[in-house]
């Protein structure tokens, strides 16, 4: 199987690379610094530089992927940003970092994937249940929540645009022990990634446009 992981320097993204490589799959993965690119190469992945905040870097992704076809794509890169609770205004810089990474980033990457979808490909966006409107009970981190709600909207549009060629889903990975999730989180990256990989392996056209928990349960938007 041919796998692409966008944002694979650490945390959940790096764990995807490790698990797919351990099973001998052909993995292409992106990172934005040289040390991380070397780590990915050492794992046997094809490592591509990608900085989501840089339009030129994102534009370069299309030609770096030229001619490649992927069965499985994980759009993983994301930031939590400053934990501003409603109704406190984020600064312009706080807003730009989170929205540019979590929303503009996928909007720049998805076009580059148009010609890279193998027959019946599966494309998964790492969202968060914090982006769900239906599950909303807290006003904390409203900037991150807004960015993941917007990312969910992108996933729905991608599901329509790519439907018939690929099955596109959004995932909540669980609360995962990474730099973002912190050490008190519920799941190790290994547990979360193993579960999401197994769920995505079962995803088909009937699931196109779904929002899934890491264990496969359907989440409300
Ligand atoms: N951990 C959780 O509990 C949790 C819960 C819900 C959803 N999620 C989502 O799951 C995904 C992965 O989270 P994680 O916990 O693994 O986070 P993480 O440990 O903070 O890793 C974030 C990844 O995104 C990359 N990234 C960030 N900004 C980027 C940019 N501008 N350009 C390219 N790459 C960029 C990072 O690269 P660098 O190393 O270069 O910064 C890193 O590879 C995120 O989308 C997150 O929102 C996580």
From TrEMBL:
This is NAD(P)-dependent dehydrogenase (Short-subunit alcohol dehydrogenase family). GO terms for molecular function: oxidoreductase activity, acting on the CH-OH group of donors, NAD or NADP as acceptor. Gene3D superfamilies: NAD(P)-binding Rossmann-like Domain. It comes from the Bacteria. The lineage of its organism: Bacteria, Pseudomonadati, Pseudomonadota, Betaproteobacteria, Burkholderiales. CDD domains: carb_red_sniffer_like_SDR_c. It holds the Pfam family adh_short. It comes from Inhella inkyongensis.
């Amino acid at each position: 199987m041919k796998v692409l992981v966008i944002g694979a320097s650490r945390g959940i993204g790096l764990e995807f690379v490790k698990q797919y490589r351990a099973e001998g799959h052909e993995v292409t993965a992106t990172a934005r610094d040289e040390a991380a690119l070397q780590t990915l190469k050492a794992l046997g992945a094809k490592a591509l530089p990608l900085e989501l905040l840089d339009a030129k870097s994102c534009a370069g992704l299309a030609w770096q992927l030229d001619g490649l076809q992927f069965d499985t794509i994980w759009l993983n890169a994301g930031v939590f940003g400053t934990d501003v609770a409603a109704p406190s205004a984020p600064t312009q810089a706080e807003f730009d970092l989170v929205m540019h990474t979590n929303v503009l980033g996928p909007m720049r990457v998805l076009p580059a994937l148009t010609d890279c979808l193998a027959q019946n490909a599966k494309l998964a966006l790492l969202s968060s249940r914090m982006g769900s409107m239906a599950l909303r009970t807290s006003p904390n981190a409203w900037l991150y929540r807004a960015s993941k709600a917007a990312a969910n909207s992108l996933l729905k549009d991608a599901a329509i645009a790519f439907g018939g060629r690929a099955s596109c889903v959004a995932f909540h990975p669980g609360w995962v022990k990474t730099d973002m999730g912190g050490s008190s989180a519920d799941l190790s990256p290994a547990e979360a990634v193993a579960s999401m990989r197994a769920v995505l392996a079962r995803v088909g056209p009937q699931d196109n446009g779904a929002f899934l928990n890491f264990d496969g349960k359907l989440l409300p938007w």
